[in-house]
Structures are given as C-alpha cells and as structure tokens.
Amino acid sequence: MSQDNISQRRRALLSVSDKRGIAELAGVLQEQGWEIISTGGTARVLGEAGIAVTEASAVTGFPEILGGRVKTLHPKIHGGLLARLELAEHRRQLEEQGILPLQLLVVNLYPFARTVARPGASLGEAVENIDIGGPAMIRAAAKNYAHVAVVVNPDRYEAVAAEISSGGAVSGETRLKLAAEAFAHTAHYDALIAGYLAGFPEAAAPLFPEQFSLPLEKIQELRYGENPQQQAAFYAQGAQKRGLAGARQLQGKELSFNNLNDLQGAWELLLEFDRPTAVAVKHTNPCGVATDETIEKAYRRAHDADPVSIFGGIVALNRPVSAAAAEAMAAIFLEVVAAPSFEPGALEIFGRKKEIRLLQMPPEDPDKAKALSLKKVSGGLLLQTLDREAVDLSAARVVTGRAPTKEERRDLAFAQKVVKHVKSNAIVVAAGERTLGVGAGQMNRVGAAAIALEQAGEKAAGAVLGSDAFFPFPDTVEAAARAGIKAIVQPGGSQKDAASIEACNRHGIAMIFTGRRYFKH
Question: Would you say 1 and 98 are in contact if contact means Cβ atoms under 8 Å apart?
Fold first, then answer.
C-alpha cells in the first residue's frame, strides 16, 4: 500500500441502529466513488438497496464474536479513525500495518432509551442495548475531526451528502460542528445509562453524587421565553418521558414557556389531593382551588373563588373532564386545560374554542420519591428533593385554649395543601375546601395576609387561615381576627409564639402548630 493510496482513497464506515436515510446517503457516496464499510443489519439494508458494501470483518480479518458484542473494536478500524495524516510517523505506521484511513463515520447507537422506556423491559434487555463499539468509534472520529467527519444524526445526512457531491469531502467547519454534536450524543447516551442503573436499589447510588449528569432531550423549541426578547426550548429528562414532558396536547397552538411553567405549578399542587379537585393558576400561583364531589362542581367553585384572576389562566383537574365541566370552562377564556383525560362530549365542546389548549396528562411518576428539583444559579445548579410529603395535621399541636372543630381541621389541612405551593411569603384563606383568598410572594407576612383577607372579603368570617411559615409578630393574628377568621394553622417556632397564641386566645381563634414550614421561592 502506497502513501498515495493512504491519502487519496475515500472510505466510509456506516453502522446504524436507526436506518432511515442511510441507503440514500450511501447511494451518494457510491456515486462519488467512496468505498463503504458496514456491519450486520446496516450492511444487509445497503446490500438490498444495491450498494456495494465491504463487511467490517473483511477489513479487520476477524469475525464478529460474542453475539455481536465485538465487531469494530479493532486496530484496523480505530487506526483508520484516529490517524493524523499530517504526521509522517502516523502515515508510516498505517502503511506498515496495512491500515487505510477513514474519512467518514456514520453511526447511531443501540436503542437504549427506547428499550428502557418500554413497559416491562428487564435489566438484562437494557444491558444488551448498551452500545460499546459505537461510542468508541464516535469518540475516536470526533477526536480526529481534523481528518474524519462523524455523523450521529440522520437529519444531517442531506447536508453531508450535498457537501460530498459538490466538493468531494466534508468541510472542516462542518466536521467541527459534527464532532461537537457527536460528543454531546455520547454524553447523553452515557448519562441515560448511568441514571437508569443508579435507579436500582442494589446500586446504592447516593442522592447527590460527586458527579451529576442530566440527560436532556429537546422536545420542542418555544416561540420565546418568559418575554419575547428571550429564546427558549422545552427538554425532557431521562428516557421515560413523565409529567409535563409526557403529556399529549389534544388541541390548540403550541404551549409557551409561561404555559409550561404555570402548568408545572398547577400539577404539583393537584398531586396533593385525592378527591375531585380543580386548580386555577396565574403566574405560577394558585388563584382558585376547590375540592368537591364531582369535577364540575370543583371547577365551578374554583372559578368562583377568584373569577377575575382565572381569566386567561391555567386550569388543571385530577379527574376526566365531563361535558358539563367543559361547558363551564368554555364560558371564559382559558389558556390551557390539563387533565388525565377528556370525555368525547368535552372534546366536542372545546373543539368549538380552538384557542384553548387541551393537555392530557400521563399518570404520576411512580418513582416520585427520588425526583429532584433543579434551580439554575450563576455557574451552577441547586438540587433538592421535591417536597412530596403529604400534608398531615394528625400530629399537629393545638396551642390555644380552643381546639379546631372537625370542619375547621378539614379546611386547615386544605389550606396547608394550597399554601405549600404558593410563593413565599404566603397566606391562604379557605372554607368548605375552597380558597377564598391567596396572598403570594410578599416581602412580609402581614402584607400577604392583608391581600388574602381583602380578597376573601366578607367570606373570611368563619373561615380558616394557613401560613407557610411562623408569625414573628402577632400582627397577622390581629388582622385575621378583624376579618372573622376562626382557626389558623402555621408551623410555629418563633421566639414570639406566645404573643400570637395570646392574641388567638383573646379573640377565640383556634390555632395549631405543625412544625413544618413550606417556603417556596
């Protein structure tokens, strides 16, 4: 083999799990005089398409072994991918070993993500779909992008074929872009595998490991972010699309960044309830929440809790949407309605209002205990476990002379379920398992109480009040008393708890301490 052969002969290795478009790309290569090397199923597909193919085993002089686990892990493959042709020593060694360089590698990997996303897939099946030779070749070619073009995405075939047809090779600029995409591809693949294996109890993986890789796959680019001057995209985490990432949109235009952000807040709150419940959200805060015997009644009561703020908002429900509920919702403008399902009559009614986006939510993630919440900060991420602990007042401590009645205790639990999902400082006024007033995101607690009590108005008389944190002063109790509040739930723990307890006793208000705060930032 001469150095002319080394530098002039064009060779490509094609070995793909996803076969779409591969025959067309190979056809262009063949027309341009390239030698095509392939393996297994890809070689068969190309052969059936009339493409002349050299089997990888003919190049290596070694058959596929171990059921296909070893077929491209060989110096005659990796030497061809990693050789720096500008170095005389590399060219000499290629000639001595009878290795021809490769100028193009087209590989995509075993379908690990699709395998583990399939219900009932076993660990053994997942392990057999962990690609070894593919990532090794991709990384080798990407490292040597100065000489090799590596393609891992079928969407790039057309552009690559066009460059080869017009200039005989892939440009240096394109090779660099393809190399970056290739490393992102293998990093995502490895992160999926690591996350899957860490989910088994036997792996004993720490909740917060020293290195944390997050596999994200783009679902869609969004029209813009929180504001039109911001760009945005929606990504799914992991192989199994859960929560919002696994939702199915039934009608309406594309969901926006703010729609998705609001939906997350609504759905997290909805998970607190077992009975039929409707949640209306505006700017990530609940503006109306109600529980009732039917989902229609729950929605109507949630609407009436704040009929002004719900306009243009997000509504989430934890029961199939009936025609009657749809009729009530269609009477106003809503951005999104999300539910587990929609009855045919409901779809027909919403079909007359195409501007309403309908979202069918998937079942709740069964592995919710290990779910993490992420917040971006400059230069890093803050990770914490999601607070999915159920609100339970059975162990709450009565600190006043009067204990809450059975109905008050029921409404106190309801208020705490809602307040848990309201931006701090947060106060919720409720009665009859319905919100009457919500004070959200205030810089002081008495300000949040003032907003919630003003919104409740006369309905506050006889209602209950929930707080996400303790009262540093008795001023919130005094405001509640003036409005006619009959019972209060709060974490307790302030150095001035005694002052608030004394104020409650003086006004005949029952108060309980939970020992559990619910800050939300």
Answer: yes
Residue whose entry in the numeric block shows the structure tokens 């597909």: 45
Contacts of 46 (CB under 8 A, 6+ apart): 14, 22, 23, 26, 36, 38, 53
Please answer whether residues 37 and 103 qualify as being in contact, where contact means their C-beta atoms are separated by less than 8 angstroms.
no
Q: Angle at CA 228, nearest 5°, toward 225 and 232?
A: 25
**What are the chain's domains?**
3-198 (3.40.50.1380), 250-360 (3.40.140.20), 397-513 (3.40.140.20)
The predicted-structure confidence for 255-291, as pLDDT tens digits, reads as follows: 999 999 999 999 999 999 999 999 999 999 999 999 9
Asked if residues 61 and 80 have their Cβ atoms less than 8 Å apart, the reply is: no
The alpha helices in 123-275, defined as continuous H runs, are 123-128, 133-143, 157-167, 172-198, 257-270
**Separation of alpha carbons 86 and 147, rounded Å:** 9
Distance (Å, whole) CA 285 – CA 440? 7
What's the token pair of residue 71?
């077929």
Q: Which residues are catalytic?
A: 143, 283
Global pTM reads 0.83
335 pLDDT higher than 90: yes
Confidence at residue 370, expressed as pLDDT on a 0 to 100 scale: 64
Within 8 A by CB and 6+ apart from 271, the residues are 364, 388
CA-CA distance, 198 to 210, in Å (whole number)?
A: 13
Q: Are 325 and 295 in contact (CB under 8 A)?
A: yes
Report the chain's terminal Cα–Cα distance, integer Å: 68
Read off the DSSP letter of residue 245.
G
User: Is pLDDT of 376 > 70?
Assistant: yes
What are the strands, taking DSSP E only, across 124-231?
149-151, 216-222
Ranges of H-type helices in 199-294: 257-270
Q: What is the rounded distance in angstroms from the CA atom of residue 260 to the CA atom of residue 309?
A: 18
Tokens of 49: 């398409």
DSSP track, 298-363: HHHHHHHH-TTTTTT-EEEESSPBPHHHHHHHTTS--SEEEES-B-HHHHHHHTT-TTSEEEEPPP
